[in-house]
Amino acid sequence: MIVDKQRQEAQPAFVLHTYPYRETSLVVEAFTLNSGRVPLLAKGAKRPKSALRGLLRAFQPLQLSWGGKSELRVLYKAEWQGGLPPLQGTSLICGFYLNELLMRLLHRNDPHEQLFVYYQDTLAALSTHEDYMPILRGFELRLLQELGYALTLDHDVTGKPINSPSDYCYEIGRGPVKLEENDCSQGLRLSGTTLLDMGRGDYSSAATRVQSKILMRYVLNHYLGDQPLHTRQLLKDLQQL
Amino acid sequence: MAYHLLQRDHEGAQRLASSLDYALQHIRHCEKCNNFTEEVVCELCRSHHRDAALLCVVEMPADLLMMEQAHCYKGMYFVLMGRLSPLDGIGPREIHLDRLLKRTQDGLVKEVVLATNFTVEGEATAHYIGELLHDKGLKITRIARGLPVGGELEHVDSGTLAQAVIERREM
């Protein structure tokens, strides 16, 4: 008997993005528990009577089943899992931001089970909390950690614990370098307090909020390359209205 | 279709070509509603029988046609010719929201009805327009969603049903 190893049944998944394909079909970029990010062809999903129509929405927990041998697998079943309140307003735009990060930074067919669970918890937090900023910072840190680019927040490059009143120069790939002189041309200057606060997930200080945002942008831009994040611009535009 | 026209229907091909050519030469966007028209301001926007205090925002010309077929709305329209789609790089500049803002400031519009689709992109678009028009002295409304008229719970998809339960109303 031939066993189709590519066949997957009822895998927990989220839709990250969809593209129209031919007249009535969609290509779904899904983030799945056991297979990571996978592209799936949803045949006829745009037809008015399709069972998939209305189900293949971002930010909603689904169970997807697919099969096939080509890179673009065929989705044959989607089941609604529910339980997450829909994202609305600014939290919806934040959700797009998470999805854009995952689309840009995750390789296809590379499983990240813990990140999947963290993503689900992050969506739940976005739908119930007003203060999005700590939620986004937490997700960015976790994403980088999962990709093998974890930030060092508790000790400097020499191994000494971070000293709260001191200033540091954060160098990508190395970590925080204690600033003896004022030279930080190789990195980003920030306070020890910010690093320690970020390590604890404490974003109550205004200075930490500002500096952590700049640090995460600096580090993410390094891994994202030249193309800017569209959702970041949209969030900025919204704030300026 | 291309092979058929070339082999068997030269006359039809010519008609199609000249129609397309005519459309490309003469069809433009209406100055008021942004829909396709051959005139500067389209017939619908010139009509005196429509309520100028209402402005309905839709994504595409096909959506406007559906609204008209439903005979439920007598106001004016604004056609975005798209929607915000952050992951495709389509932002507020690409769908000319500045023109929509200008359109709402004519002194006649009192209520803006957001009839963008109930997709995540349509929702994001509605939210952005809501924020854009906030504090401009306008009433902003969003069309309702839920079970289709004549729809039975047994045959409706789970997403629609879940949303209808979340947005249930008191009676």
Automatic annotation (TrEMBL), chain A:
GO biological process: DNA recombination; double-strand break repair
Matching Gene3D superfamilies: Nucleic acid-binding proteins (2.40.50.140), Recombination protein O, C-terminal domain (1.20.1440.120)
Pfam families hit by this protein: RecO_C, RecO_N
Protein name, per record: DNA repair protein RecO
Family the entry assigns: Belongs to the RecO family.
InterPro entries: ARFGAP/RecO, DNA_rep/recomb_RecO_N, NA-bd_OB-fold, RecO, RecO_C
Gene Ontology, cellular component aspect: bacterial nucleoid
Domain DNA replication/recombination mediator RecO N-terminal positions: 11-80
Annotated source species: Nitrosovibrio tenuis
Alphabetized UniProt keyword annotations: DNA damage, DNA recombination, DNA repair
Functional description taken from the UniProt entry: Involved in DNA repair and RecF pathway recombination.
Automatic annotation (TrEMBL), chain B:
Domain Toprim intervals: 53-148
Assigned keywords, A-Z: DNA damage, DNA recombination, DNA repair, Metal-binding, Zinc, Zinc-finger
Recorded GO MF terms: DNA binding; zinc ion binding
Gene3D superfamilies to which the protein is assigned, alphabetical: 3.40.1360.10, 6.10.250.240
Residue intervals of every C4-type zinc finger in the record: 30-45
Any single biological process term in GO: DNA repair
The protein's name in its UniProt record: Recombination protein RecR
Source organism of the structure: Nitrosovibrio tenuis
Organism ancestry: Bacteria, Pseudomonadati, Pseudomonadota, Betaproteobacteria, Nitrosomonadales
Encoding gene per record: recR
